[in-house]
Structures are given as C-alpha cells and as structure tokens.
Amino acid sequence: xxxxxxxxxxxxxxxxxxxxxxxxxxxxxxxxxxxxxxxxxxxxxxxxxxxxxxxxxxxxxxxxxxxxxxxxxxxxxxxxxxxxxxxxxxxxxxxxxxxxxxxxxxxxxxxxxxxxxxxxxxxxxxxxxxxxxxxxxxxxxxxxxxxxxxxxxxxxxxxxxxxxxxxxxxxxxxxxxxxxxxxxxxxxxxxxxxxxxxxxxxxxxxxxxxxxxxxxxxxxxxxxxxxxxxxxxxxxxxxxxxxxxxxxxxxxxxxxxxxxxxxxxxxxxxxxxxxxxxxxxxxxxxxxxxxxxxxxxxxxxxxxxxxxxxxxxxxxxxxxxxxxxxxxxxxxxxxxxxxxxxxxxxxxxxxxxxxxxxxxxxxxxxxxxxxxxxxxxxxxxxxxxxxxxxxxxxxxxxxxxxxxxxxxxxxxxxxxxxxxxxxxxxxxxxxxxxxxxxxxxxxxxxxxxxxxxxxxxx
Amino acid sequence: xxxxxxxxxxxxxxxxxxxxxxxxxxxxxxxxxxxxxxxxxxxxxxxxxxxxxxxxxxxxxxxxxxxxxxxxxxxxxxxxxxxxxxxxxxxxxxxxxxxxxxxxxxxxxxxxxxxxxxxxxxxxxxxxxxxxxxxxxxxxxxxxxxxxxxxxxxxxxxxxxxxxxxxxxxxxxxxxxxxxxxxxxxxxxxxxxxxxxxxxxxxxxxxxxxxxxxxxxxxxxxxxxxxxxxxxxxxxxxxxxxxxxxxxxxxxxxxxxxxxxxxxxxxxxxxxxxxxxxxxxxxxxxxxxxxxxxxxxxxxxxxxxxxxxxxxxxxxxxxxxxxxxxxxxxxxxxxxxxxxxxxxxxxxxxxxxxxxxxxxxxxxxxxxxxxxxxxxxxxxxxxxxxxxxxxxxxxxxxxxxxxxxxxxxxxxxxxxxxxxxxxxxxxxxxxxxxxxxxxxxxxxxxxxxxxxxxxxxxxxxxxxxxxxxxxxxxxxxxxxxxxxxxxxxxxxxxxxxxxxxxxxxxxxxxxxxxxxxxxxxxxxxxxxxxxxxxxxxxxxxxxxxxxxxxxxxxxxxxxxxxxxxxxxxxxxxxxxxxxxxxxxxxxxx
Lengths: 458, 589
Ligand SMILES: Nc1ncnc2c1ncn2[C@@H]1O[C@H](COP(=O)(O)OP(=O)(O)OP(=O)(O)O)[C@@H](O)[C@H]1O
Ligand SMILES: [Mg+2]
Known about the structure:
The structure holds two protein chains of two kinds.
Chain A: E1 8-10, E2 13-16, E3 20-24, E4 33-36, E5 39-47, E6 50-55, E7 68-70, E8 76-79, E9 87-88, E10 104-107, E11 124-125, H1 130-133, E12 138-139, E13 143-148, H2 154-164, E14 169-177, H3 179-191, E15 198-204, H4 215-229, E16 233-239, H5 241-254, H6 268-276, E17 280-281, E18 287-295, H7 304-312, E19 315-322, E20 327-330, E21 336-337, H8 352-374, H9 381-398, H10 406-420, H11 423-426, H12 430-436, H13 443-450
Helix pairs in contact in A: 2-3, 6-7, 8-9, 8-10, 9-10
Chain B: E1 8-15, E2 18-23, E3 31-37, E4 40-50, E5 53-58, E6 70-77, E7 79-82, E8 90-91, E9 121-125, E10 132-134, E11 138-144, E12 147-152, E13 160-166, E14 170-172, E15 179-182, E16 188-191, E17 195-198, H1 221-226, E18 234-238, H2 245-255, E19 260-266, H3 270-279, E20 296-301, H4 307-325, E21 330-336, H5 338-351, H6 365-373, E22 377-380, E23 386-395, H7 405-413, E24 416-417, H8 422-426, E25 439-440, H9 446-455, H10 460-484, H11 491-508, H12 522-536, E26 539-540, H13 545-564, H14 570-586, E27 587-588
Parallel strand pairs in B: 8-20, 18-23, 18-24, 19-20, 19-21, 21-23
Antiparallel strand pairs in B: 1-2, 1-6, 2-5, 3-4, 3-6, 4-5, 7-17, 9-11, 9-14, 10-13, 11-12, 13-15, 15-16, 22-23, 24-25, 26-27
Helix pairs in contact in B: 4-5, 6-7, 10-11, 10-12, 11-12, 11-13, 13-14
Adenosine-5'-triphosphate (ATP) sits at the interface of chains B and A.
C-alpha cells in the first residue's frame, strides 16, 4: 500500500512491547490501520493523545523513531468474483503470484445480521460420513467445530466434508497452518477440480502469530460477499481456532489486561462469538456455514478455548481413535449437532431420530459393559451382545471412512438392532418398529425359539 | 419535569467500548448520553464518574471514533417505553424494535421506536371522575392480543391524585391523552397509554410481596413432579454446553401456565432466537388455543451484538415483566444465559481496571445477581389483585464446573436449582436435570405443600419424597453393583436399581421434540406417578439377576409407549393392559 497525501505521518514512538507500540498522535480513529516501519498495525487503545497500536507482524526491530503512517480507515478487503481460486495472506494480499484483486473495498469485521432477517436453517448438508450425517447432521447456516487432538486427521476430514458438501464456494481461513497442511489443502482441492470454487486466506506457521487475528474476518468478508451479493451457499473452514485464540491472548497480555481462566482475555467469549455468529442462512437463499477446528490439549474440553467455543457453536464433532476397530470415529457421545432437529425425520426418513437415539443408547450400554469387563466382572448375555453391537456399529457407521447415503445408514442401524437385540430392548416407538424392523431372522426369533414365549407388542 | 441545560462532553479516551468523556456540567450515574460520531449517534451509559470525567459504556462498536468527538447527555437513565403493543414484539436489548429496522444488517446507531404509535386501541375506562388514584392505579384497559392490558397511572408519579377527566370507550393511539389527573394542589397531569421507566430500578408500586405458594405448572415432569417451581418463584439452570439449557427454557416458554412470557436471549446464539421467531407465530398456546407469539415478547441481544447492550437486555426484560405484573398477570421471565450478562459486567470492570474478584468478575457480582433475582415474586397490588413474575435463568459455568462465581452467586439468590448433568446429557437422558442434586426450596414451604396436597393429590408431597427415596436407593444400588459386580450383590439390589430406572425413563426423561411427550399436564403426571409408585411398591420374584434387566425393560417400554400416546386413548389403554399383564408375571404378595 502506498502513502497518500491525506495520511498522517509520525516518527516518535513512546513505548514498545512485543506486540504493541504507543505514540502521541491526533485525530486517529479507533480500530484504524497504520503502518509502522513497513509493518501493518491497528489502533487498539486511545488514551488522551496517546495511541496504542497492535503490530501484526510483531515489534522486532522497530526503533523509537520509526515512521508511523495512519490510513484513516479500518482493515478492508476488495471483493469481487476475482477472489475465486486465489490464495491470500492475512492482509488479503495475494500469495499465489497472481495479480491484485480488483473490486469493491469492504471493511472487514462488519456489522451483524439483524436476527429477525435470518432464516431458520433447514438445508441438510450430506457428507456421507455416518458419524456426521446419521448422528450429528449438519445444516447449512450452522457453525460447528471439530474438537480434535493435534495428532488426529482433522484437516483431512474437514477437506473431505468440504468437498462433499456441494457448496458454491469454500473459503479456507488457515491460522498457523503448517506448510505441509497448506499444500495438502491446495492439492486435494486441485485434484477434486475444485480450485475455482475456493478462496484461501492463509497465515502459516512461518508468519507472525498476531497476523492471524485478521484471518477469520477476511475469510468471512469474502464469504458475505458471495452469500449476500451472489446468493451462494458458502462453506467457511477455519483451522485452527485454538491458534487464533492464543494470538488474542498474546495481545491482551501485552496490553496488561487482567486475564481470566487459562490466561485467556475476559472477552474471549465475545471475541469468538463475533466470528462464529457470521454463520447464517439468508432469506434470499445464500448461506454461510462455518466448519472450524479447535485443537485440544490432551483431550481437555474444559480449557477456556474449547469451553467457550462449545458455548457458541451449534455443537461439536469429536474425533477419536476406536481401539476396538483401529479406526478414527466420530465419537457419538461427545459429538453433537444442535441443528439436526431441523432436518432429521423431516428432510430425512421419519425413523431417523429414533434410529439415531437408540443406537447411541445401546452404544452407551456397551461402554458400561466394557467398564465392567475392565473391572474384572462377569458379563451378562446382554452385555456381550451390546459389545458385539458396538463393534459393528463402530465399523459400519461411526468410522470416518464410511461413505454411504442416509437411508442406507438407517437400514444398517435397523439390521444391527435386529441382529443383537429384542424389540423391547431397542424400545423404539411402536409404529416405527412395525414399519422398519427387518423381516429376516434376528435375535428375537432365536430367543423365542429357546425361551418361553416373548410377549408380543400390540 | 423541569428543563435542564443539557450537559455536554468530549471524548478523551477509547478502550474498546469503554469511552472516557470530559464533561462540562452535572452527570449522573447510569445517565444515557449520545456520542456524535459523524452522522450516527452512539448511545452510551455512564458507569462511573470521577471529577469531570465520565466513564461511559457504549452500546455499539466504537470503530472509527476519535478523540474530541462531542457527547450529549440526556439527563435520564436507560429507560423502556411501556404501553400496549409490547406483546409479539422482537426487541434488541435496548428495546429497539428489530422488525422495523431496515436492511439485513444492523446499522450502527439505528434506533427504532418500541411501540407502534399509529395503531388505535379499543379503550375501556375503569375509573370515574373524582376517583382517587395513585401510581399504578388502573385507569382503563385495552385488549392486547386478548389480554386485558391495563392503562395505569405512571409509576413515576408520587402521592395521590384525583381523576379530573377520563375518556369514554373508544379507539385511541398510545399518544392520545386518555385521562387527566390532578394532585392535591390542583396541578393537572395528562395521562396517555404509555409511560417510561428506568430499567435498573425495580417497580415497587404494590402492597406486599408474600412468599409464593401456588404451583406453576410447566408440563416438564422432572420439574413439576420432583422439584416444582411456584408462581412468582425463582429458579436457575446451570449446565455445561450442550446439556439442554436452551431446549428446556424453550419448553418452559411454550408450555408453562403463564399469561405472559418474556424471553431474554442474552448473549446466546442468533439461530436459537430465529427458532422462536419461526415457531411461536405457528404454535398454539395449549391453554387458550391462540398463537404462542400473542403472549410472548422476545428480547434478542445475541452474542454478536454489542456487549453493553447485552448487559442492559436482562434489565429491559425484567422491567417489561414488572409492567405486566402490575396488571395482575402471571408473567414468566426466562433469561438465557445470565452468565453472558455477568461476562459483560466482567469485560467492563476489566477495562475500567477495577480490582477483580474471583475469576476476574467484579467484586459485587453476588450483590448484582441477588438484587436482580429479588425483582421476581408474587405480589398483592394496591387494589388487592395479585400478579407475579416467575424468573428462571440459565447459567453457563466455565468448564462445566459449578464451583465458579456466577453459579455460586446465583445459588444464593434462586430458590430452585435445576442442575444439568453432563453424564445424563451424554447418555441422552433428556432433560438432563440431575434429580438428586437438584432441589426446589419451595418444597419446604408449608403453604406450598398445602397447596399441592389440596390441588393435586392429598398424598402429593409424600409421593415426591418416596420418588426421591427410590432414586437415591437406586443410585446406591447401582454403585454397589459397579463395585461388587452383578452377582456380587443380592438380587434386591438389581430390583432397587431397576425401580429407579423406571422413574428415570418414564418420569424424568421426556422427549422435548415429541408432540405428545413434550408436555404433560399435571393430571397426567399424577396418573403416571401413581401407576409407577404402585409398580415400585410391588414385590417381584426373580431367580437370577439376569432376568431383572430384561423384565424391567419390558415394563419401561410399555410405560414409555404410554407416554408417547394420547392420554387415555385406546392406544394408551392397550399399553396399560400389556403392562398389567407383565406385572402379573412376576408379582408376589
Ligand atoms: N429434552 C430434550 N430432548 C431431546 N433432545 C434434547 C433435549 N434437551 C436437549 N437436547 C439435545 O441437546 C442439544 C443441546 O441442547 P441445548 O441447546 O439446550 O444446550 P445448552 O445447554 O443450551 O447449551 P449451550 O450452553 O451451549 O447453549 C439439543 O440441540 C438437543 O439435540
Ligand atoms: Mg443454550
């Protein structure tokens, strides 16, 4: 960005911390952009005539007589269809050797959608992964993170979800992305022939951490352009939001704010909500869906970052390795899609809610049986059966490499119930049992063969 | 009110939404001011004064604001406008009507009128000339969505007055004068159908506030049957994320036996409010057959809206509730989540560099929460009619740990505690209210016990005790089984456990998304409770523990099918017959 006539230039910095610089300046607007010694910065505090700037690139090497130029406007992005297929850094500048994008300049981190102008989300997003579609169905306009330990293949699963989701645009916001992961995304999108539907804003591990504070807003400003101006369904991928929150903590720490839990700023909830709440279904048809990644440390979800995220997002998807089958599954206990009610049994077959709930309940019985086993107790016949059920359920439905449609998932569910349980044990609403309980011989028949008569349901 | 020269000021510092203003005249705590940012006015509230500097929290984003911008003070606190037309409205935390705002995105500094000033209301007078009146006296009424909306002497008016003139029956707008009243010195005051009131001040124009004693039916079994709340009572629902706070509150807002429901969405998800916007105009109020939206007002200050307005939103909601209470109505006020309000307080206190209390919350958090809950209650108005505000708030404890400041402070203030358990939610035992940890202090009130025993069943409170005992015994038995193994304990332990499971599956668990199961009227709760207690008091015989699980699952299945069937329908009765047969199989005397 070049200097223009109306811009104010200062050269006397009064104090410098690792992430901020202060100086005396007049007529500066709150949240305005500036450049210090060639590095972008933003106004975060004004006390009298002293202005404090957050320096995105870090303050290393900034001298007290550095040149400070104010831009008179908050950070912005030029939006147009030219964004498609392009890769940008945190400031929205191309990193793919392509030309600068021409278009309308929009402030990032713009206003909120009036809640009465929102539409209730109602379009199912099918991913083929049963751990998602069956148990934690995604809906367009939803915001949902993967909670995953750093060693889990979250970026792979996310890329898979993104490509199968049939979105008009996929916007990748990468924060602290390793170069390998960046290339991974680039490759899979390329191989899927989807590059022209993708816009990426990437802050890599090589870039200064504070820069990544701009990434979500950049990505969402682009998303709003396509969703509002072009009525498109836009899927925004934000990875990794834990690194974003860490950057927030760095800045607030440098500004001497009193930290709340886990050294995070007291405003963490509001800061994250501002981003995630950009997910929306517009009445005119466009939508923004946010799928994010929040990495955990040691699976701890009570840490401030996942905890605050959980309170904001519409559920969460947990990845976990199921050692019984040796595969990564979507954990049915801790995962949840809050918006699934809006589509299951409505956009999908009527038995969807019942099959989902019953399977999860039986899976819970299996985990109780497992605890018994670990504690050295004998198992009942029911325990044994639930353990067997759990394995098949895990393999055929929960594993992330399953790719089938929802009706097939439901049919698989009924088959497993029939194979391992009686109707009473399954405890599903009668009218559904009548309609969907498989004909083929199952446990019920085997049991009634050898035991006294099974009281039938009316 | 006397005219004052309004105080002006200039912006001196900006730290996010905290702005420090140098003022040229008097300002008062909580006074509202407007910061003149270019062509938009940003509304702000004074939260601290020191010499000629006022600290104000801005209800908007302060982006682009600069030093020396002018500020105008209004000489009044944050107020709401009260009058007919509040029902069915969707407001933000500052009572701006969201529906009359333009565009898809909220515009900074756009403020809209709370009431429709052109609509005409059919007014009926309730007083005559020369009648003596005071603040809160009912002068007349209009029909607001089939509710008698009383037009009252403004709450701000002190002393007694005489009605000088009163309009006859007819149609008037909220701005028309419907009465003139005069004080003892003969000063005359024209009265319209609207008045304003500062949200942070409780409306206290009532005679007395006795202990609440009437049961408030909610249709949620684990509340009504186990830990009932009263009309005018207070309760709170703490729970980790995803444990079902919002679903439970939505259920209460749909089913509870209230005349007016005010829902404050305070710093939570916009999509959840959209659910209310979408459903309430469609859903029928089970008691009146009219649409739920007709009796509801929604205050939507979602998490992405400005933090200071979030703080105001719960007060706005409470003031609207108090207004309807003054009309002798039963108001249910729900706030989701009060933790977000506390966090808004924390953010401000942080920016003001106040000495922090536990977890960086302000030191006086407990007092703030207590005085808010104290605004609920059952009151005798000055005309001997009664009105009530039942308040239920949710709490979102950090890390799901109930030993955190907001939960602890609220526990001191609220009388019912509905603790949502992560474990129950994980195993999809919804609503996830822990039946043993939760409590209703109202069960200790003699007048409440008396009321329930008279109005529901003479043994009702004894039965509640019995149910809780069975649950506790069941939990103990299950712990023993876990320690000693299935065959390490007598069969009786298994039976005790399964009897508690019947209560869990059939009374506690309730499917909020099933048309029939979602709401259970008290008569039906009574019937089912009786049925279940009879089973629990029955002796059964088993040869081995293995048979218990299978047998009781069949019993539970029939009972659940009953829950899913229309009460007393053929289907219901069929399952009941099946149930009786199953019971006979193993019953011993
Ligand atoms: N009574 C119920 N019946 C069926 N499902 C329920 C019930 N209560 C909760 N759920 C399920 O749990 C999910 C989460 O519930 P809810 O949104 O009320 O949680 P919450 O406690 O408000 O969470 P947060 O603190 O994050 O707002 C719902 O989307 C729904 O799937
Ligand atoms: Mg909630």
